[in-house]
């Protein structure tokens, strides 16, 4: 049997070409994920710097000024310090739960960023149940906190984990009802469709004006979900010695720190998407109609403008959250639960029934 060397070379070159195509496809699939993670990391660093500057301004002190110009590298310096610190493990605790808890808290929040539309068609994955995927995945974070508190074998830590679980359950239900109201109003649960439904009338098309009660409930519930003052009962330093974080040190403590700011940024992005029109220019189309066709004329320029608008609205809400933390006192645990179950839950349920009735009457 005579084997043609030319055919063998052609087969080998074809197989190498197919292998290169597969590698190229894998790399191209990972590029958006790494880009999103890098952008989120930079966003968290900016939030930490903003919180320190805003809190310094409110309390009339100087704030960070040595690590980089205007102290912008202070958060990076703190993260580097935590990375090289020693990781301590409780001698009688559950090592597996103690180590897995911080990872669950961070990963569950990171997965929720996949359904955030930062601009027109600039989204990692556009799912038909995008907003409910966020609620389902972010609900796993308190499980990580509870595992951390239990695995520490510390009464203070375990009490902090229990508080985190109770607080999450109390405010997850009003939050879900508000999201369901927005889905009924927009006839879709996709985050892209919700933004598109608000784009018809510019500023006056925002769900903020169509759902003012839901916006207030969502705002309060999101602050409670992020465990921000006045709702930071799970880690109340004066009462619980830092709660579920008591036994943690080094990078594991840093993961909790990062998770809190990741959750704050995520909540701010969802406020922008659900109530503030997302990436759309908030100018009535009857005045400047050509601005609303910017995506059709130049996709790259339109995407950049959309990202800028989304981040501007997001950081406006972040400023409100940070100022609230350094202005209001902490609630007691009974006050927190009463607010969630006796006030926010009936109000959000009545708001949902009102929206449902109006949608049925309009059919």
UniProtKB/TrEMBL annotation:
It holds the Pfam family NADHdh. The chain crosses the membrane at residues 26-50, 97-116, 122-147, 264-288, 300-323, 343-361. Its EC number is 7.1.1.-. Signal peptide: none annotated. Keywords: Chloroplast, Membrane, NAD, NADP, Plastid, Plastoquinone, Quinone, Thylakoid, Translocase, Transmembrane, Transmembrane helix. PROSITE patterns: COMPLEX1_ND1_1, COMPLEX1_ND1_2. NDH shuttles electrons from NAD(P)H:plastoquinone, via FMN and iron-sulfur (Fe-S) centers, to quinones in the photosynthetic chain and possibly in a chloroplast respiratory chain. The immediate electron acceptor for the enzyme in this species is believed to be plastoquinone. Couples the redox reaction to proton translocation, and thus conserves the redox energy in a proton gradient. This is NAD(P)H-quinone oxidoreductase subunit 1, chloroplastic. It comes from Tecomaria capensis.
């Amino acid at each position: 049997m005579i084997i043609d060397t030319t055919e063998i070379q052609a087969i080998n070159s074809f197989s190498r070409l197919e292998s290169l195509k597969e590698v190229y496809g894998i790399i191209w699939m990972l590029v958006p994920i790494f880009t999103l993670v890098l952008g989120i990391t930079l966003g968290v660093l900016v939030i930490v710097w903003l919180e320190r500057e805003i809190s310094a301004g409110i309390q009339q002190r100087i704030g960070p000024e040595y690590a980089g110009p205007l102290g912008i590298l202070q958060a990076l310096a703190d993260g580097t310090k935590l990375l090289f610190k020693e990781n301590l493990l409780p001698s009688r605790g559950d090592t597996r739960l103690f180590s897995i808890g911080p990872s669950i808290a961070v990963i569950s929040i990171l997965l929720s960023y996949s359904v955030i539309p930062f601009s027109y068609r600039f989204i990692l994955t556009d799912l038909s149940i995008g907003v409910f995927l966020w609620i389902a995945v972010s609900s796993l974070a308190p499980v990580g906190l509870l595992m951390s508190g239990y695995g520490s074998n510390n009464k203070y830590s375990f009490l902090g984990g229990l508080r985190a679980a109770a607080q999450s359950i109390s405010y997850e239900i009003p939050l879900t009802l508000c999201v369901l109201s927005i889905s009924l109003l927009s006839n879709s649960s996709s985050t892209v469709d919700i933004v598109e439904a608000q784009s018809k009338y510019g500023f006056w098309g925002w769900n903020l004006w169509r759902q003012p009660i839901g916006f207030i409930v969502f705002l309060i519930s999101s602050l409670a979900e992020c465990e921000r003052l006045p709702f930071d009962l799970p880690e109340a330093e004066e009462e619980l010695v830092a709660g579920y974080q008591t036994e943690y040190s080094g990078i594991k403590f840093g993961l909790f720190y990062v998770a809190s700011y990741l959750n704050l940024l995520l909540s701010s992005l969802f406020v922008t998407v659900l109530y503030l029109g997302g990436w759309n220019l908030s100018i009535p189309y009857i005045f400047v109609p050509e601005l609303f066709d910017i995506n059709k004329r130049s996709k790259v320029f339109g995407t950049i403008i959309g990202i800028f608008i989304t981040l501007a609205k997001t950081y406006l809400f972040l400023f409100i959250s940070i100022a609230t933390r350094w202005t209001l006192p902490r609630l007691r645990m009974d006050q927190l639960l009463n607010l969630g179950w006796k006030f926010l839950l009936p109000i959000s349920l009545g708001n949902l029934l009102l929206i449902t009735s109006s949608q049925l009457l309009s059919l």
